[in-house]
Amino acid sequence: MVKANRAIFLVLVALFFIATVNCDTTTTICKVKVSELAECLPAIAGKSPSKPTKSCCAAIGKADLHCLCNYKSEFTKFGDPTKAMALPKQCGLKLPRECNKKFF
């Protein structure tokens, strides 16, 4: 009986974890899913970040860039804010002029 209760408990914990993860992937910032923006982390993190991938550029293309300008302080948690603000240009997009005033 104890083994059965433990198994049920573990299944419930696993289901709770899956539900929690699924909720986080639907969170949006500036009209783009957080999970999609996460595709850009390799392009802003570390000493020698990689070039943005097609999926990163697709996420940046969907985003409200004016809105993203307000998140510079958040970028420091994940990588270099200057590199983050360079992503639109690297993806062939133009960064709104107002963003430059907010960051540099």
From TrEMBL:
SUPFAM superfamilies: Bifunctional inhibitor/lipid-transfer protein/seed storage 2S albumin. The keyword Membrane does not apply. Pfam families: LTP_2. Keywords: Signal. Residues 30-99 form the Bifunctional inhibitor/plant lipid transfer protein/seed storage helical domain. InterPro entries: Bifun_inhib/LTP/seed_sf, Bifunc_inhib/LTP/seed_store, DIR1-like, NsLTP-like. Residues 1-23 form the signal peptide. SMART domains: AAI. This is Lipid-transfer protein DIR1. It comes from Forsythia ovata.
